[in-house]
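We close this part of the discussion by returning to an individual protein. Part of our work consisted of pairing the sequence of a single chain with a tokenised description of its backbone. No coordinates are needed to read the tokens, only the vocabulary itself. The amino acid sequence and the backbone structure tokens for this protein are reproduced below:
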Amino acid sequence: MVTVQFVGSGDAFGSGGRFQACISLRWGHAHVLLDCGASSLVALKRLGLEPSSIDAVLISHLHGDHFGGIPFLVLDQQFGRRERPLVVAGPPGLGTRVVQAMDVLFPGSAQVRRRFDLRLVELPERRAVQVGPVEVTAVPVVHASGAQAYGLRVVADDRLVAYSGDTEWTDALLELAAGADLLICEAYVFDKPIKYHLSYATLREHRTHLGCRRIVLTHPSDDLLQRRSAVDAELAEDGLVLAL
């Protein structure tokens, strides 16, 4: 059984008082995060999720509300005397962007010697690769972030979790969702078109073509939250736990 927990289910701006994007997948002794927004370390500790248990972090794209928590996580583990490796995997440019972020937020922290190996891995497109305890396939989606944005297909303990990251509608979402036990999908606004983001109305229009067993929406703005009563779909909350 895989436990899926929404550590942070919000957008970049704290809409609804939510923490930024961060989703925990746990099974057996394995623990993987999907995204790690800037607020994620606080959110993990509030939920009692021990950062030292994290084997790998999978990043969908290089915006601060999706990867900006990495410098805080790394520093926390350094001061916590972690010794086992931590893998961070994501789009091309991940390694450079993480080092730059660390040096801006904590000058010199990217070059310091640690007791643990920080492995920064750039994911290829549409090829399954092993990252820590999971198999990951990165599917290109449409979201401007200074590098190619990905949706992620993650095989954990024989369960397939698909994660859209941020994207406008693209047929790549059909590929991403195919056969998934769970699709975690952005629904940023209710129905108005916003470039590079999905609306609930667009997802509803395409739902019958998404070949997944279950969809949970995430990353809502105030626009969607204000019309929540009209949303006929599961919407994540910070702390929500699902069992697959």
Notes: The chain has a mean pLDDT of 97. The chain has seven helices and 14 strands.
